[in-house]
Amino acid sequence: MRFFIALISVMALIATYSLILATAGSADDKTQNDYYRDSKRGYWWYEKEPEKPKEERDDKKASADQKKVPSLKDYSKGQLWNMHPDDFKALRDEFLKKAVQVPSEENVREFYIVNDIARRKALAFTNVTGYVMQKYPDLSVNKDYPVAAPGMNALTKQKVEEIEKVIRNSQDDFGLIYFYSPTCQYCIEQDGILYFFLKKYGWDIKRVDINIDSRLASRFGVTTTPYIVLVYRNNPNSIPVSAGVISMSEMEDKLYRGIRLLKGEITPEEYSLYEFQKGGSFDVNAPLKDGIEDIK
Predict the structure, then answer these.
(1) Given its phi and psi angles, is residue 202 left (phi above 0), alpha (psi -120 to 50 degrees) or beta?
(2) What are phi and psi of 97, to 5 degrees?
(3) What's the DSSP call for residue 184?
(4) What is the pLDDT of residue 15?
(5) Is the pLDDT of residue 145 over 80?
(6) Given this model, what pLDDT does residue 4 score?
(7) Cα separations (Å) of 14 from 6, 10, 158?
(8) Of the spans 5-9, 59-63, 137-141, which averages the highest pLDDT?
(9) Pairing relation of β-strands 174-180 and 205-209?
(10) 288: pLDDT confidence band, cut at 50, 70 and 90?
């Protein structure tokens, strides 16, 4: 009898343990199934984020739309005067927007108070600039580019003399190729200008009718007439002088610069530099002013 009771107890324990194992297995299976089922969810599987309630979206939008309105009561005179220019400009723009949006007397008045500070700061900078230019004249370009009439006359004379000298001295090393067309009305005007140039400087000018010598025109990329090219004798280098009608003074100026470029006397960075201006304010390669470390 006792044997049967003990056997029944053991069988009950085994049944209970099996039930526990089965329950635990089901829970593990469910966890694993949930993991693999949810692993392909989210942004990278093109699942959109659930939309937030409309009330919450409206509240955030309203909060973002509410910009702080500037007021002079929030700033002292010292703060406005010593504010960084970027910050001051942004603040001035906000006062302007405020005055435009609500053009009340107070809003417009505040904007012009801020604007008056900007005007005074600009005036202060201008005044100090005048003082610095007088105290440190080497920083001013007036010595190289005078604004007074006598100085301007002297500067113009120097430029003209240098241009004419360079062109005259280059007669043996340079020449012009003049592309024209008999039916080109602009070429008639250019012919007259070239006549005066030839009479003044005595250069060799090769005239080329593009209808007859189209191959040479193609070589120099001529697509319109009149077209003038500066060529360097015994050297393959050349440079266009004009495409279209060019005046005498402009032709002299471009010839002067073209000659110096082809001879290597100047670089493109020094294109506008005259010889008498070397080392001055208009020379990009001039030594830096005192107070600045040399650029290595």
Answers:
(1) left
(2) -60, -40
(3) -
(4) 52
(5) yes
(6) 44
(7) 13, 6, 118
(8) 137-141
(9) parallel
(10) confident
At 45 the pLDDT is 53
Whether this prediction's pTM lies above 0.90 is answered by no
Coil, strand or helix: which one is 58?
helix
- Which one, of 235, 241, 163, 153, lies nearest residue 205 by Cα? 241
Query: Which DSSP letter does residue 83 get?
Result: S
Rounded to the nearest angstrom, the gap between the alpha carbon of residue 256 and the centroid of all alpha carbons in its chain is 30
Instruction: Enumerate the H helices of the chain as residue ranges.
Output: 2-38, 54-65, 77-81, 85-101, 105-135, 149-169, 185-201, 214-219, 248-262
Judge whether residue 13 has pLDDT over 60.
Answer: no
Separation between Cα atoms, residue 197 and residue 246, nearest integer Å: 12
Average pLDDT rounded to a whole number, residues 23-28: 50
Instruction: Please name the helix (run of DSSP H) or strand (run of DSSP E) that holds residue 177, with its range, or none.
Output: strand 174-180
DSSP secondary structure of 203-266: --EEEEETTT-HHHHHHTT--SSSEEEEEETTSS-EEEEEES---HHHHHHHHHHHHHHHTTSS
Cα distance between residue 181 and residue 224, in whole Å: 9
Q: CB-side exposure of 250: number of CA atoms within 13 Å?
A: 11
